[in-house]
Amino acid sequence: MSGGIDSSVAAILLKEQGYELVGATYRTFDSISRECLAKEKGCCSVDSIMEARRMAQDMGFEHHIIDLRQTFRESVIADFIDEYLHGRTPNPCVVCNSEIKWGKLQEVADALGCDYIATGHYARISSDETGRFYLRKGVDAHKDQTYFLWRLTQENLSRTLFPLGAMTKAEVRTLAAAHGYVKLSQKSESQEICFIPDNDYRHFLAANVEGYAERYPCGVFVDTQGRVLGRHKGYPNYTIGQRKGLGIALGKPAYVVRIEPETNRVVLGEREDLLSRSCRIVRVNMMKLPDFIDGMEVMAKLRYKSRPGLATIWHDGDAVRIDFREPVESVTPGQSAVLYGGDDWQDVICAGVIC
């Protein structure tokens, strides 16, 4: 429970369905900005933790605040920093879901004698005749969160309930208001990383990496031919596809098309230089299928807000190669690629990290 509308409505629905509930809210980090508190951003603030507790009390079930600050630092934040320092763009929500929200929550559920874990995610779970579980997209296409959940294991899925998976966000707001939680039904949502409420990851790196400026100094921008164009402020400060905030004027739009940590060079090019016909993913989690046949057709989603594209997949050593039907833009190492199949492209076949 985050204190927000989704987890609260999930609790309302589960209680109405006859489940015995125990609420759990995490404390994951110490740094809380004034901006975060002012905007009442979900899990960012102590206020939100207290809102979750009040909701549980109002609905008549016990509530636990779990201190996971050390684990969060050692897993989610450490991975976030390490990825940027190696020239990749991380996806901390994917790591948090698997290692914190399920990794630790399952331990808490066992300790409390709970059979299931439930959250307010917009996703669905299904299973086949062999008993294999897999994710299906949430009914609300604009809110579907399967992209962030691809690392969940078969054990995780077998013990998980997603009460909001068959609902739209509008329906969730209406239900909250109908149960008397009018203020909650009108609460805005955060699109930011919870531990970076000002959305400035560069400032976060500078503040959390010892000797950051000395270890990751200024370097050169080069074009796709290797010609020097100017100076940059250290390669971790840039991401693939970035156009704004480069601090260089070339008389035409320029985009980050490659980051080279070993040489401290950032390669700039035109938009066409961002197009790719294929990519590879590692750390693959097979979900709907234990394996696939080479040439299988899927819909590949490379970023949460990007449109999925038709592709075929192939075994490639310990990786999976994705060949796109049409060129795709800004394939970004460190981001997740989630591959969907089924008659309606709703089922998560497998997923991994772009390398």
Note down, in words, how this protein is organized.
This protein is α+β, with helices and mostly antiparallel strands. It has 3 domains: 139 residues, Rossmann fold; 53 residues, Adenine nucleotide alpha hydrolases-like domains (SH3 type barrels, Roll); 80 residues, Elongation Factor Tu (Ef-tu), domain 3 (Beta Barrel), CATH 2.40.30. Helices cover 28% and strands 27% of the residues. The protein contains 11 helices and 16 strands. The strands form 5 sheets. Strands 11-14-13-12-15-16 form a 6-stranded antiparallel barrel. The protein has a 4-stranded mixed sheet with strand order 8-7-10-9, with no helix packed on it. The chain has a two-stranded parallel ribbon with strand order 1-2. Strand 7 and strand 8 form a beta hairpin. Helix 4 packs antiparallel against helix 5. The longest helix is centred in the N-terminal third of the chain and has 17 residues. It is globular. The relative contact order is 0.12.
Write a brief caption for the model.
The chain has 355 residues and is of the alpha+beta class. Helix content is 28%, strand content 27%. α1 (5-16) packs parallel to α3 (46-59), α1 (5-16) packs across α8 and α4 (69-85) runs antiparallel to α5 (92-102).
